């Protein structure tokens, strides 16, 4: 009898500094998926080397012509790709373009939205046009000249210097005076050819996951991020130097406002699958909470301790059912 289970690829790895983080997310997803319903394989992508990692330690190369592989002398075709590459090429559009060409549905948004959400400067200026609050920022490209005093006059101090197109807080620096700007730019340019200098927002950092299907909208409880470091950098994120409080300690009014903003951004982008939006809750001149978007993660971390699984548990949901919702929404 023909196997009626869908065959799913968890696509991980990638070519960025976040390769190892992605591999951990893939293992998390493998443990979460409903294996009675799906046949699950981990596909490791790095440069031109694409292969299936079997649970017994063996591998099989992927045929990139149709995204298939050989197992026990038979060709295995994938029905669906769950992309969990953090960084290039899975979070900035190329992988989505490939799957469009070979007609394999996938878990993220399409090429344009992936490319745009990966570029923080482009995303901020796009969403600002829809009335979303974002920090003021300046873009520098490799080789551009800049005036430190003009930057300080426009954005004030401190500022954040970050790669315009990267994730996981690699290459990010908090700059407290103009003298620190040049070394911070050198660090950021090691990760990206474009660097964003962003005005500092003083407030409470939170992160909120969301997904939508044809039948429902699921806005997950927000997580409050309290870092022991100056800010929520890579070390804080992955080496435990942070307190994560779910649900976030917000007033009912602000909780509602954040959820509404998250849902609206999802719709503006015509997003797909689970995304996670990071915010800073600041105060306006009257002392009221103001929701300011920081960035959007379209392939958020999926280890057992990552934000999304935390938020799913806090919502009283089962991550296995959430993943099933996301996959089945495209069939």
Describe it:
30% of the residues lie in helices and 29% in strands. The protein contains ten helices and 17 strands.
Number of helices: 10
Portion of residues in beta strands equals 25-35%
Strand tally, please?
Answer: 17
| Backbone CA Rg | 20 Å
List the uncertain runs: none
Judged by helices, strands and strand pairing, the structural class is alpha+beta
Q: The biggest beta sheet, please?
A: 6 strands, antiparallel
The quaternary structure here is single chain
Globally, the shape reads globular
| Overall pLDDT confidence | 92
Series of H and E elements: EHEEEEEEHHHEHEEHEEEEHEHEEHH
Helical residues, percent = 25-40%
Q: Roughly how many Å apart are the termini?
A: 22 Å
């Amino acid at each position: 009898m023909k196997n009626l289970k869908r065959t799913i690829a968890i696509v991980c790895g990638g070519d960025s500094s976040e390769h190892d983080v992605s591999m951990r997310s893939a293992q998390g997803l493998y443990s979460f998926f409903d294996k009675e319903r799906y046949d699950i394989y981990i596909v490791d992508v790095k440069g031109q080397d694409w292969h299936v990692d079997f649970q017994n330690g063996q591998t099989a190369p992927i045929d990139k012509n149709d995204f298939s592989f050989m197992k026990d002398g038979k060709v295995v075709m994938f029905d669906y790709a769950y992309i969990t590459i953090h960084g290039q090429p899975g979070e900035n559009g190329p992988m989505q373009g490939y799957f469009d060409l070979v007609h394999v549905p996938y878990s993220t948004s399409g090429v344009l939205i992936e490319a745009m959400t990966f570029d923080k400067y482009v995303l901020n200026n796009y969403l600002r046009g829809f009335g979303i609050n974002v920090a003021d920022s300046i873009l520098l490209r490799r080789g551009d000249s800049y005036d430190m005093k003009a930057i300080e006059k426009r954005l004030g101090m401190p500022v954040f210097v970050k790669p315009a197109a990267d994730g996981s807080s690699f290459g990010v620096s908090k700059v407290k005076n103009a003298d620190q700007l040049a070394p911070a730019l050198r660090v950021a340019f090691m990760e990206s050819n474009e660097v964003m200098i962003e005005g500092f927002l003083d407030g409470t950092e939170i992160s909120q996951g969301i997904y939508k299907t044809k039948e429902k909208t699921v806005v997950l409880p927000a997580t409050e991020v309290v870092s022991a470091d100056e800010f929520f950098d890579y070390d804080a994120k992955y080496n435990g130097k942070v307190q994560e409080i779910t649900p976030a300690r917000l007033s009912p009014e602000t909780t509602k406002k954040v959820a509404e903003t998250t849902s609206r951004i999802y719709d503006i982008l015509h997003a797909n699958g689970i995304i996670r939006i990071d915010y800073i809750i600041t105060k306006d001149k009257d002392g009221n909470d103001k929701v300011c978007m920081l960035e959007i993660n379209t392939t958020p971390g999926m280890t057992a301790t990552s934000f999304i699984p935390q938020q799913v548990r806090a919502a009283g949901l089962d991550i296995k059912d959430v993943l099933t919702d996301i996959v089945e929404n495209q069939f």
